Amino acid sequence: MWLGLMALLVGLVLGLWLPSIAIFPATLQQQLPNYLGLAILAALDATLGAWRANMEGTYDIGVFLSGFFVNMLAAALLAYLGDLLGVNLALAAVVAFGTRIFNNLAAIRRILLQRWRQRVSRVG
Amino acid sequence: MRQYLANDQRFAIVLVGLTLGLLIGLQVRTLGLQRGSVGTSRVNVLVERLLRAQEEIEKLRDEVDKLRQQISDYERAMAEGKAATQRMAAELNNLRVLAGLTKVRGPGIIVWLTDSPKPVSPEDPSSGIVHDTDLLILVNELRNAGAEAIAVNNQRIVSTTAIRCVGNLITVNGVTISPPYEVSAIGDPNKLKEALTMPGGIVEQLTTLGIPVKIYQRQDVIVPSLSITPKLELARPSER
After folding, report:
1. Does A15 touch chain B (CB under 8 A)?
2. ipTM for the predicted complex
């Protein structure tokens, strides 16, 4: 748990620091956020999905890791393909991942609530 | 909970956390850089730069006037004591006025016109707009009525001046001007005004299109000098 947070923090610092030492080409700087945002969305979805699976007892590291990286790349590539075709596929990815993130959060919330109620009834 | 994690799981968590953090950091940073360079502040910056450039142009134009004045001072000094060259100097001054190299003032008129404020007719969206040809006709009428010096939005009209449209803007002497347009001309104020307001004349044509035109007769109209001296590269005086 702490290890993961620490790694997140290190990555955050690294990501914030990297652009200040290496100046990206202007075109990359303009295009990057479009795809990076989708990749982040996919990664967030995979992480929340893993959390939910962990709570439901169906967690599988292989599923998590593959989902994390493959979804991330797929989302970015899909958006790129959409740009090439002139179709806003990025929107489809945003909707899909957004829905899944909310579903995962709802599931996590329900499980946490259930556990808390069980604890309260046991104590009471 | 940490004790139950196997080594490869710990590695996976680190990897995932690092990747997620890196991506979020990069995204935040690049978006921040973008906002800094092309954000809403850009318009303000450009406007400020434009104003500064215009100030500089004004300053440089004054300097051009000053330097030309200096040149004519020197010429006057040279001409002094030399009766023969005195007439030449006077002629040179006249020619310089005609060529637009000096700022001139005298009686004349100022014509003010701008695009129609009312919505233009739907069948011809360009009908209420002042075109380059309108300005050309206006300048031509003024010349025909004996105007000695003409400027459109402070751009002196000389023999090499072109008035034309580039996209939806009008350029005079290669300088972009925008409405409202102000054509100042030095000449007999009554003659100039009559030339423009005659029945079927340019003013009547423009007002029927909904373009507001105002003519002011003034005893002291200032016409600025040409901001750029045109280059003469090919034309040479012919002996015959």
Report:
1. yes
2. 0.72
